[in-house]
Amino acid sequence: MTPTSEWRKPHPYLVGNFSPIHESPCLTQCNYIGTIPSELAGGQYVRNGGNPLLNSDLRREAHWFDGDGMLIGVVFRRTEDGSIVPEFVSRYILTDAYLMSVTTPSLRYPIIPSIATLVNPASTLLHILRSIFRAFILVLLSYLPGSHQAIKRISVANTNVLYHDGRALATCESGPPMRVLLPRLETVGWFDGCKAEGEPPTEATQGVAFGNDIGSFNILTERITAHPREDPLTKELILFHSTFFAPFVYYSVIPSTHLKNCNTQPRRLINKPIPGIKSAKMMHDMGLSRRSCVIMDLPLSLDPLNMMRNKPIVSYNSSEPSRFGVFPRWEPEAVRWFETSPCCIFHTANTWDDLKSIPETLEYADNVIAVNMLVCRLTSASLVYSAGDIAVSHVEAKKKSIYPVEEEQCRLYYYRFLLSDTQNIITHQFALSAIPFEFPTIPQNLSMSQARYIYGCTLSKSTFGTALGGAAKIDCLAKIDSSMLIRRAQGSTPTPITGCVDNRSVAEIINSNDNDNSIKIFKLPPGHFAQEPRFIPRYDGKFEDDGWLLSYVFDESQLKQDGFARSDAKSELWVIDAVTMEKVMCKIRLPQRVPYGLHGSWFSEQDILNQRPVDTIREVPCNFKKINTNKLSLEAIYGKILNYVH
Question: Is the pLDDT of residue 42 over 90?
Fold first, then answer.
């Protein structure tokens, strides 16, 4: 019996405003109320997320992190009279898996196995192997003449979207980035670190591509993190690649070459191993400062060999420590490892260096005293399970550990890694606030230096890891003055690991009448839920927080009694004053729902205008033919096998 057969109701991450929508590929003008800030003129906000194409079985195994990638954006078009007109667009990212799915009518279930299958302790070995074998067979079949799209990469590109060097890139850690074209969000092609498919040859950069010198099986070795980071000053793109084979993690720095007149080849680092990691891990993010990188080796494995140990492929081991590898940006071989209490971290918020001399007159080892990092720290892997509607009680109980037992939580957490001492010491490790906190965002220009304010999502009645059977929904946005709370901790240092600077709850902060402005919370109206916010600075802003937060918002009064969304349900894009965290400057009424998704980015007018040229874009075949399974041909064989493994 599989876990699927035990479910008696639709999966909570496949109904309501988690359910997929149809794409709206044409730019559609939107109505709005309020005033659109001039800072938005000519730019575009785009958010990525899973939107499963094959969704007929709502009781199947599913996970919030599954689904074909869909980009949903609002572009703020300038008009000749100087006004701003918001226009909406939503498009599937035309990955190899999506194109095969949309051109193969006999498929009923997604090609890629659900993360829920891989993480569920109740999944039998036979069930896991069957799911993987089915995907493997479908990949092989995609190369036969009857297929309209060979699956060369298994990524669904459904997690994040960012901009680097004239390219907008959609990412997911199961493969390389996919280039898309702003503002209409057409799919261009896979980006390999040197060029993207669909670009003219003149746009290619000399050098080794992702994974090319790691191994011959590129479908596994060219995987990159879903959260590459662009240095706001040098415009370098920094990222890591995780694999199933030793040394398990590689590191790359990709320079910016577009619109630059370079007489010499810019410095480039590609596929460099990071020593010291002993097994395959699920790694989602990293910390990056102007000079340093922090890689996180946490006790959450992503290892096919786990099946031989009678464990899920994705497995959390609470008896193992969390390890943080700190190294200079250009020297991954110089990594220093720091160990502490086990945890899960999916997102870092801010990383910065403590220096001896400013401006710099010393080498890295002599000048960087310590590296500081703010993260969204979970005390277990409960989010991984609850996002698949998997009972946490099935998860292996905590084993004996030398570290203190912590209650279930996800908080904004501060680490300080001391480099001036020969011993690898974490001098500070405690939470800044007791409120649940995830999906952090800061001003892009401060992404690798110390930011004062951290914006993100919080919940008034639950936590991000304990939403089993209901799904986590964001009813509050938070603004945390991290500098103030770190200074406050200097007067009375919290207990290492379990300590917290501000112990107030969300309700206590909202109802507070004192002058403590270290945390501000924007509470949405009842029944309204937001998504990850994005900060846009004011042109003439005098302070760091002078700007706007953008977030998609949905009113769940548009859901029917059975929990499904009405066909005419619509979302809004809210523009919120980031200083006061009280005033909504503008509400843009969108022509359709925006499902609760993952990560987004703001693309400026210059980003859109300065995109690299494109020769071709990916398209769904207009008149793909249905396979005739009565003919004895390769196409017939392909069709018959598909009917068997649907």
Answer: yes
Is residue 415 classed as helix, strand or coil in its secondary structure?
A: strand
Measured CA to CA in angstroms, residue 506 lies from 408, 459, 521 at distances of 16, 8, 8
Query: Does 11 count as an annotated binding residue?
Result: no
Q: What DSSP line would sit under 222-264, residue for residue?
A: T---S--EE-TTT--EEEEEE-SSTT-EEEEEE---TT---SS
Q: So what's the pLDDT on residue 362? A: 60
Q: What's the pLDDT at 627?
A: 45
- The two tokens of residue 184 are 């209409």
Binding residue per annotation — 227? yes
**pLDDT tens digits for range 134-144:** 999 999 999 98
Say yes or no to pLDDT of 641 above 70.
Answer: no
| Phi, psi at 48, each rounded to 5° | -105, 155
Strand order in the sheet with 237-242: 229-230, 237-242, 249-254, 269-273
For residue 337, give the H/E element and its range. strand 336-340
284 carries a ligand binding annotation: yes
**Predicted local distance difference test score (pLDDT) of residue 588:** 99
DSSP-derived secondary structure for 361-379: -S-HHHHEEEEEEEEEEES
Burial class from Cβ neighbours inside 10 Å (0-12, 13-18, 19+) for residue 155 reads buried
pTM: 0.92
> Binding site annotation covers 127?
no
* Mean pLDDT of all residues in 74-93: 96
Residue 333 parent element (H or E): none
Mean pLDDT of the chain: 90
pLDDT(210) > 60: yes
**How far apart, in whole angstroms, are the C-alpha atoms of residue 52 and residue 69?**
8
Q: What is the 8-class DSSP label of residue 495?
A: P
CA–CA gap between residue 436 and residue 427 (Å, rounded): 24
The full DSSP string for 45-95 is: EEEEEE--S--S-TTS---TT-S-EEEEEEEEEE-TTS-EEEEEEEEE---
Residue 363's identity, in one-letter code, is E
CA 457 remoteness from chain centre: 14
Total Cβ atoms within 10 A of residue 407: 8
